[in-house]
Write a sequence for this structure.
């Protein structure tokens, strides 16, 4: 069990650029979640997958955000036309029936 | 919709002293409750969880939490704090064992030597 991994750990981009983050869950976990965390706040739910199916999306997930989990294993989160308000830590988690286990996160800074 | 309140933004305790972090939740049905710890720049580590059964649950690193339905609370406790416990602590509620989580705003714990 190597835990949940996320890549990259840090991303600095200019406003208007597109960025993509990757999450590799714990191998036997079939649920995968994305959360966003801003400074001084708790994580906020964005979306989750069961296997390759995206089952729920938060209203926080604007049209510029898209997530995929094409083969039910790793997942990607893409943000198009980034804005300064997108600056945050993006956390991925995977779960079995005993709780969610989080990766180290990707810190996005939009200049 | 469910919600979580962590009334204390920041708590300072001396090393060796006892600790209690407060968490209140709002959810109409049986909640699934979690405590996570986050060190600076890191992801969240699951400390403990309550799904059902015994209302006093034990977790890792010597932490425990007690579910009190009448008070809608799930407070985290530790009898003797170590300097390495300094971190941010988040309480979360879910609607099932693998549902999305709703987090509180966190309590930052500082430990003085």
């Amino acid at each position: 069990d190597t835990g949940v991994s996320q890549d990259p750990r840090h991303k600095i981009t200019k406003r208007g650029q597109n960025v993509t983050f990757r999450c590799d869950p714990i191998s036997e976990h079939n649920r995968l979640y994305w959360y966003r965390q801003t400074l001084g706040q708790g994580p906020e739910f964005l979306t989750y997958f069961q296997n390759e199916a995206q089952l729920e999306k938060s209203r926080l997930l604007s049209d510029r955000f898209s997530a995929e989990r094409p083969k039910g294993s790793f997942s990607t989160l893409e943000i198009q036309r980034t804005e300064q308000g997108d600056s945050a830590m993006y956390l991925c988690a995977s779960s079995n029936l005993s709780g969610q286990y989080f990766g180290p996160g990707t810190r996005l800074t939009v200049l | 919709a469910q919600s979580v309140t962590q009334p204390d933004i920041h708590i300072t305790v001396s090393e060796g002293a006892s600790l209690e972090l407060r968490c209140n939740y709002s959810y109409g049905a049986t909640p699934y409750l979690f405590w996570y710890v986050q060190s600076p720049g890191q992801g969240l580590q699951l400390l403990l969880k309550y799904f059902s059964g015994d209302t006093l649950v034990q977790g890792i690193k010597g932490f425990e939490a007690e579910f009190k339905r009448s008070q809608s609370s799930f407070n985290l406790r530790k009898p003797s704090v170590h300097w390495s416990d300094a971190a941010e602590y988040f309480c979360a509620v879910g609607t099932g064992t693998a549902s999305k989580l709703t987090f509180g705003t966190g309590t930052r714990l500082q430990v003085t030597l």
Notes: Chain A has a mean pLDDT of 94.
